[in-house]
Amino acid sequence: MVRIVAALLLCLLASFAAPARAESLSCAGGIASEGDSRLSVLYKCGQPQLADTACAPVVYAGTLYYVPEPFASTYVPCQLTEQWLYERGAGNMIAVVRIRGGNVQSIVYGRQPH
What we know:
- This protein is an alpha+beta fold and 114 residues long.
- 25% of the residues lie in helices and 33% in strands.
- A hairpin with a 2-residue loop joins strand 1 and strand 2.
- It is elongated and about 45 Å long.
- The model is unreliable at 10-20 (pLDDT under 50).
């Protein structure tokens, strides 16, 4: 009886788990998804309408604390982050593709860039 209750409780808890949501971008040359290389996105979707590149702050391994500036720029290389904006035509939301370390980190849809 205890095993049945434990199994039912486990099933109930598993049903509350949020499903993973990975966005993708449908383009003329194919579908770009999270994890794709930047070259793959360029091949599938072409050049973005807008692009921005920034150096993301570096955090200590296993923590959420940022490496302070004198050390961050001197000893720890920055993490190059790119944002590419794709306008998908009238009636569609724009897509912002975030690339970090050469691979797609996320694809976000919206009415304007964030």
